[in-house]
Each structure stands twice: as structure tokens, then as C-alpha cells.
Amino acid sequence: MKMLKPIPWLILAVLLILILYPIYQVLILSLLPNTEIVSYITEVENPANRFIPRYFIPRAFSLEQYRIAINDRFLRAYYVSVFYTITVTVLQFCIAFVMGFVFAKTRFKGRDIVFFLYLAAMVLPFHVTLVPLNQVLHSLNVLNTPWAIILPAVFSPLGVFLFRQFICQIPDEILEAATIDGAGLFRILKDIILPVIRNGVMVFLLLTITTQWAAIEPALAFIRTDDWRPVSLLLRELVSSNPSQTFAPGVLFMLPMIFVYVATARSKNWGMF
Length: 273
Description:
Elements: H1 6-30, H2 34-45, H3 64-69, H4 72-105, H5 111-120, H6 126-139, H7 147-154, H8 157-168, H9 172-180, H10 185-196, H11 198-214, H12 217-222, H13 231-241, H14 247-265
Helix pairs in contact: 1-14, 4-7, 4-8, 4-11, 8-11, 11-14
């Protein structure tokens, strides 16, 4: 049996290579000179080539792509994406955490039906809700403003579902004991529930931040000017118009998500609650 122990590690190593290799390839391609990357794109788009060329070690290092990529338009889109992500995450956390507690620990008539109807919104794709959502945003006069992105996102049912499932696992006796000791609702939420469901909070943060950072459809549907377009939409436009200039922006686009993943993975050492 001891001979079988290296096998799981070997499987994990293979999976890790498969996952990290595309990131490594984009990083290597972003360090090529502009002439080299144009040649690479030409080879890729040539239908006579059956295999895409690979660069395990770049033939020449250059930051030329980054100098071209980091311009006023890209920085503006980057700041807009950071603003959207932080705002949506904070507001959605406040709303989802409270609603998750309500659906998990309060009793009122029709609670399960309301939760089921709210949860049903998770299975609806964005394209199904596009027309009614556009009408609502138009009536609120927030189209082509940041609120057109923020308002629909902060009421996402995913966070409510996650917090409800985690809070349901907390025994009612603990909350009753805290109430008898004189703890108010805010203190119960902050000092009792949050520390217990810290893993759930990390899952919520990881899913919400990555989803909002990479979102394209809402900005494509509700934003018409460049002033409030996120960097994900800018990358989409670069892929269509100038694919040779997408690798350096792609690396810069990945950096915040790598940081978020590492931070949430090491959250047990934060002592944040």
C-alpha cells in the first residue's frame, strides 16, 4: 500500500501543470518583443499550421508590450473594474449576509416559498433577464452609469444561498444563549455568526470577486461610453481588433485574481474576525 502513496501526488502534479501552463504561456508571450509577438500571431492564424507554436523559454525578453498596454484608456478601465468589484463585493456581502440570516434563523409565513423564488433567479441566464432588467434600469434613469452595473449585481442570489447554508449549520441554542446574555442582533451577527462561518465568507469573497472582475455582459449591455467600461470589456475588444496586444493586458488582468486566491487560501492566518 505504501507504493501507492506517490500516485495522488503525481496526479495533483499533472493537474497543477495543466492548470498553470496556460498562465505561464501568457506570461512568456507577454515578455516577447512586439515584432516577435506579431510573428507569433501570424503563425497561429495561418491555417496551414496544424500546431500552435509553444514558448517554454522566450527567445528575447522585452517590456515593450507592457509599455504599449499601460496607457490612459487601459488604466481608466482597470480603475473602473476595481471600483465595480470592491463596491459590488461590499454591498452584496452586507445584503446577502443579512438575508441569509433571515432565511436561516427567522420564522415567518411563506419563508421557504420566498427563498425558493429568490433562489430560482440563480438558474436564469443573463440573456433571459436582459430585457426586463434594461426596462427597470431605464425607468430608474441609471443606464450608462455605474449603478447599471452595481445595482443588479448586489442582489445576486448566490451569496444569499451560500450564507443561508452556512448559517443553518449553527445550532439555535447558541443564538438563544447569546440573546439571554443580552447580545443584540448586530453583536450576534458580528461576534458569533461571522467567526463560525469564516470559511463561507472566504468562499463568498472568492466567487463574488472573480465573477465581478471577469463580468462582460452587463457592461456590454448597459454601458455605452468608455468612461465606465471595465477592463474585461477592453480585453474583449483587443482580442477582436488587435490580438497581438492582448498578452500584457492579460497578465495585468490576472494579477488581482491571483492575489485574491492566495489571500483567501491563507485566510486562517489573518485573524480577521
